[in-house]
């Protein structure tokens, strides 16, 4: 029966030698940080230590100098070097005892998956006295929260595998943490394409700096900008309404026309949803993106409703054979040209019988640039029964091949959103 | 003129509020950890703090309780909140002074990229007295190393953007750190496909557990296993020979036939190199992988020598129109079948005039499975002028769409390696 006080600040403490060897990337820390930011809980530090009780104990000590909450990942497995739970229990002077419901759940898990339970797995059901146990439907390690007697320090322990950690966090920890906050936070993400981060910031500087609730924070990833609008209120409805008010204000600025959605997954997701809504089919012709547009589209399950197929025409001959681009056009203007982009888009639309055809041809580098057409020169075409349109990109030739390909693909999706 | 003593232990300290908000994943820590592990430098902890001098100072203090070396990333930019360099200088009681070569390099960078240099950027050329400056050809922030007077504590500061950090590390920091080790470590990576991690471990258990120098460590990523062989010796030649001896022993085991290369970049890289060597061209027909094979091939600059193009035939009609798969074959056997894989591979090879055609058709899920053909059923075809061969995969239907697509694409590259 521990007291639970409101939580304001947190530290994320990941346990695992494989992280220190660099064998895996610490996606758990980013995931947890995002969720805590959404809850309005400030994260001051991430720490990673190996499976070593002394270092773990020191890290807990250091964390609680500032934080009310420590979230750990890892070290809840059945083997002798999984020591997170035992170390935290000893830190809080809690004795360990068998937790019968967890033992039964672990037994049931092994029966369900047809595997043999070992004596080791029983260790996973031992819990610090007085802790809150969260069930794990995805593995054998239950999650738990332990607090000190005063209720001012809490450790939430989660398993290391990201699939388990994310699912348990969403299902069990999020409600638990919401309950331990004094107010409710709601965040909405505005997705922007076609305007750079600094331009966005300039246009809405007043809204960003003057508004304390909701707050407006920008973040950017290759070629895209997102604005996270976060409102704090006594209940969810009020906070959501406050967000919507701010979003309306931002839409009314010059940024408005570059907004392609609020809380949509990605540009490709928004483009596919638009095509579904209009009952239109899509075909692609890719040169420099080399399959990336198709790959991003087919990352989305159920895209077959919209996406018929694509031609990756890397060689000039392939452009002629698969898309019917005329030899003379290639000779006269070169493969990276407005004219070829146009013929590629029309060709793939006609050959596959799609409503919309999109095309990309460009120079992704690092080689292949010329003074007239430097690395970063990209033409995108879109074709419908009403004709073709072409967009030219002149990305910096200092950019990586990877960046140029990603931004080109994003522009193709943006053209679908703007022009269909 | 600082003394430089050998380095044995390190801590990685990443600076950036965007990491604490979870807006970006800390790939730098994993990259640096891998490189340090290869050098035989033990990493005891990762820490992430915000752009806050006091927390950064505390983190340095804590790190040097155990480590000889701290590598920081981030906080070297031109704005007022970039404070890593200033904080480290003050930690070591070094005055800051203008570093003329860096100032000139920054000026040249701005001229080259056609942008205007601001007064802020001059700050990036201010350096702690006596530090070692490493040039940055990828951005404006030079990297640097500073040591205390006794040479027992060193901080290496790197810029935050992963592209810059990785390039500078490889070009500048690696030689610097090699010089500061007492012995030389050489690592070689054995790439294995088609045998799982636990099977590999069973087959070479004795070699792995008994050999202390070279060491053999396995690590796996989707569908692939790598063995890192690391030898320590007084010079590079001896260490490399020791690695080669161990690699020969491993090749002589049952694992041998599943090795597709040593220190090759990836399966697709090995496949492309083989085709280049044999002067053969390649075309692909992709259904469930939806462009991923082409995307992975075109990630490699210079692949146009080998790769002509691909058809992403997501819809059945596209398989008929673009590849000439017969309607009757699709009707009789279904799109996910040995027969269709065969016709797709032959069709794309013939239509594009390639020497080798590869094809994939399968069910990536999460929907679309049937009792006869569950999610994870994938057929791969390869066609040459000598005829076709087909490989069937039955991946677990519990696997994610992403995993099934990746492993299918990897199998396509493996077929090129085994059958061409």
Task: Summarize the structure in words.
- 2 copies of one chain form a homodimer.
- Chain A has 420 residues and is of the alpha/beta class.
- Chain A folds into 3 domains: 171 residues, Molybdenum Cofactor Biosythetic Enzyme, Chain A, CATH 3.40.980.10; 79 residues, Alpha-Beta Plaits, CATH 3.30.70.2860; 153 residues, Maf protein (Alpha-Beta Complex), CATH 3.90.950.20.
- Chain A is 40% helix and 25% strand.
- Chain A contains 16 helices and 17 strands.
- In chain A, helix 11 packs parallel to helix 16.
- The radius of gyration of chain A is 27 Å and the shape is elongated.
- The N and C termini of chain A lie far apart (60 Å).
- The interface between A and B is large, with 75 and 76 residues.
- Strand 14 of chain A pairs antiparallel with strand 14 of chain B.
How would you summarize this macromolecular structure in one to three sentences?
The structure is a homodimer of 420-residue chains. By secondary structure, chain A is α/β, with parallel strands linked by helices.
List the helices and strands and how they pair.
The structure is a homodimer of 420-residue chains.
Chain A: E1 9-15, H1 17-20, H2 27-39, E2 42-49, H3 53-63, E3 69-73, H4 84-91, E4 96-98, H5 100-113, H6 119-122, E5 126-128, E6 132-134, E7 143-147, E8 154-158, H7 162-179, E9 184-193, H8 197-203, H9 205-210, E10 215-221, E11 224-233, H10 236-251, E12 259-262, H11 267-278, E13 282-286, H12 292-298, E14 307-313, H13 316-323, H14 327-333, H15 338-352, E15 356-362, E16 377-384, E17 387-394, H16 401-419
Parallel strand pairs in A: 1-2, 1-3, 3-8, 13-14, 13-15
Antiparallel strand pairs in A: 4-5, 6-7, 7-8, 9-11, 9-12, 10-11, 15-16, 16-17
Helix pairs in contact in A: 2-7, 3-4, 11-16
């Amino acid at each position: 029966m521990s007291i639970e006080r409101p939580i304001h600040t947190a530290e994320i403490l990941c346990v695992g030698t494989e992280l220190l060897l660099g064998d895996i990337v610490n996606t758990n820390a980013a995931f947890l940080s995002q969720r805590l930011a959404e809850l309005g809980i400030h994260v001051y530090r991430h720490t990673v230590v190996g499976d070593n009780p002394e270092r773990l104990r020191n890290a807990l000590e250091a964390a609680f100098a500032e934080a009310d909450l420590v979230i750990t990942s890892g070290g809840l497995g059945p083997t002798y070097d999984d020591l997170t739970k035992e170390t935290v229990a000893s830190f809080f002077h809690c004795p360990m005892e068998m937790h019968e419901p967890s033992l039964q759940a672990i037994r049931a898990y092994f029966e369900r998956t047809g595997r043999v339970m070992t004596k080791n797995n029983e260790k996973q059901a031992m819990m610090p006295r007085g802790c809150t146990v969260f069930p794990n439907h995805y593995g054998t390690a239950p999650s738990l929260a332990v607090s000190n007697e005063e209720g001012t320090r809490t450790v939430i322990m989660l398993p290391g595998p990201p699939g388990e950690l994310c699912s348990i966090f969403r299902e069990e920890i999020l409600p638990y943490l919401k309950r331990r906050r004094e107010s409710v936070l709601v965040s909405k993400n505005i997705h922007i394409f076609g305007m750079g981060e600094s331009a966005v910031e300039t246009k809405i500087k007043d809204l960003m700096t003057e508004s304390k609730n909701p707050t407006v924070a920008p973040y950017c990833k290759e070629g895209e900008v997102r604005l996270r609008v976060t409102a704090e209120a006594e209940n969810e409805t009020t906070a959501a309404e406050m967000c919507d008010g701010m979003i309306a204000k931002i839409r009314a600025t010059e940024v408005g026309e570059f907004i392609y959605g609020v809380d949509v997954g990605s540009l490709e997701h928004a483009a596919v949803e638009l095509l579904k809504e209009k009952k239109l089919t899509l075909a692609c012709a890719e040169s420099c993106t080399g399959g990336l547009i198709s790959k991003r589209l087919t990352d989305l399950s159920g895209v077959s409703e919209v996406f018929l197929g694509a031609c990756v025409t890397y060689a000039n001959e392939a452009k002629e054979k698969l898309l019917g681009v005329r030899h003379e056009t290639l000779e006269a203007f070169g493969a990276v040209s407005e004219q070829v982009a146009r013929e590629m888009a029309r060709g793939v639309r006609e050959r596959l019988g799609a409503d919309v055809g999109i095309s990309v041809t460009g120079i992704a580098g690092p080689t292949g640039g010329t003074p007239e057409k430097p690395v970063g020169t990209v033409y995108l075409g879109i074709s419908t029964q009403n004709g073709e349109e072409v967009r030219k990109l002149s990305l910096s030739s200092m950019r990586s091949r990877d960046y140029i390909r990603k931004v080109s693909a994003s522009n193709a999706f943006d053209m679908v959103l703007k022009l269909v």
